[in-house]
Amino acid sequence: MLPRPAGHEDEPSPGATKPTSGPELEPFEVFRQEREGEPMRHGGSVVAPDPTLALHYARELFARRGESLRLWVIRRADIVELDDQDLLNPPLDRSYKKPGGYVMRDKLAQARVRTGQAKRTASSGRGAGPATPAAPPDQAGQA
Amino acid sequence: MTDPLALDPVLPERERSRLPFNQDRPHDERYQAFEDHVLAGGKIEAGDWMPDEYRTSVLRFVEMHANSELMGVLPERDWIMRAPTLRRKLALTAKIQDEVGHAQLLYRVAEDLGKPREAMIDDLLAGRTKFHNVFHYPTRTWADIGVIAWLVDAAAIVAQQALRDSSYAPYARTMKKICWEESVHIMHGRDVVVTLAAGTPAQRAMVQEALDRWWPPLMQMHGPRSDRSKDRDLHWRIKAKTSEELRQEFLGIYVPRVRELGLSLPDPELRLDPVAGEWRYTEPDWAELRSVVTGHGPASAARIGFRLAQREETRWVRETILGPAVAA
């Protein structure tokens, strides 16, 4: 249920050309790094009987004009995939794990009003500072 | 303590299970979920479940594209040994290698949809599948190479740019790489044409003659106008634009660029209708298009014949790598 190999059983074998004899051709996924410091990005795929030939093939297709600093080829069958949305995007509010999950605008405004540092609003006009309520005892010493 | 499992789901159904058609459901439900996903702008990956008609439509489209890239190098190949300078020869060779590379990338995309490459080559060489009309014509002068690299590639790139939004994600990603390389070909072709147009009277006459010959096939290349509502490829968002939209876009960009060189286009009706904002032109010869793409073009037999001979000549390479049985 957790990880499963890429591709589904009820499909024609994804991309595998089945020869009647000789070495089996299989798909290899190609990843390339475009500039120093950048991540390896998926570029496409090639079919080959072994990793060495897959690499030569990838070099011809993905690096012949100097657009790659590095290439990886990975047997497609060796990729372990997880796309179960119940695990990746569980149906629960996880907003507390993201910066956007913390909405404090109103509370902050309230707190500023209490410490006399409320920002002037358009209607209050320049220079006409808001009334400064007495600071509550627990915030009296705060800078 | 709050039991997290007792919390209400906050994400909408579509986000919770982004690809409901991948789940084991009755076919009609799956089909509906798939269609909703695609029509809402969703993308399909090779491993996703897809209706047979979607799979075959994408396959047919990509296979025809791959065939065109493979066959499209043959008219240009004839000019490698006749290129006028070493730099032109290098550029032409690089372009040809790019186009064969595109064929390889596209045959990979098609293979993942379930059709083996050998079967695609078999069908191409037996005339059961098609390739673009423009590659069924012979090349007669060096100016043809400029016109093909500039305008044939430009007409193709207009279509290919729209395909970067295809609902079939592996195809869309491949098109991004292909478009990037095609933009170099267009510069190479335009440079050849501009050089000839700025050259001697004989060179100008040569490029004008090439343009006159290539214009009718170029106008046919995107195909006849079609009914948007009946086009399955548009419905599934396999492609994004109709034939006529592509042709209009091509004319809008390239007619002014041809004319600014002092070259003329062999169609007295060709003009921009300022009211409709559309190009008017003489109706292309659709009978010629149909005849050419079904293997009755002036160079069709020669192109297929070359590929057949080539397949025999390179058999030893495939046999070395794959063993005798596969290389059939």
How is this structure best described in words?
The complex is a heterodimer of chains A (143) and B (328). Chain A is α+β, with helices and mostly antiparallel strands. Helix content of chain A is 18%, strand content 18%. Chain A has 3 helices and 5 strands; from the N terminus they run E-E-E-H-E-E-H-H. In chain A, a hairpin with a 7-residue loop joins strand 2 and strand 3. Chain A is elongated. The two termini of chain A are 56 Å apart. The model of chain A is unreliable at 1-19 and 124-143 (pLDDT under 50). Chain B has a two-stranded antiparallel ribbon with strand order 1-2. In chain B, helix 3 runs antiparallel to helix 4 (86-111) and helix 6 (142-163) packs parallel to helix 8 (201-220). Chain B starts with 12 loop residues before the first helix and ends in a 6-residue tail after the last helix.
- Structural class based on helices, strands and sheet pairing of chain A: alpha+beta
Order of helical and strand elements of chain B: HHHHHHHHHHEEHHH
Main beta-sheet annotation of chain A: 3 strands, antiparallel
Overall pLDDT level of chain A? 76
Structural class of chain B: mainly alpha
Distance between the termini of chain A: 56 Å
Strands side by side in the biggest sheet of chain B = 1-2
Main sheet of chain B?
Answer: 2 strands, antiparallel
For the CA atoms, what is the radius of gyration of chain B?
A: 23 Å
- Spatial gap, N to C terminus of chain B: 69 Å
Stretches of chain B where pLDDT is under 50 for at least 5 consecutive residues are: none
SSE sequence of chain A, one letter per element: EEEHEEHH
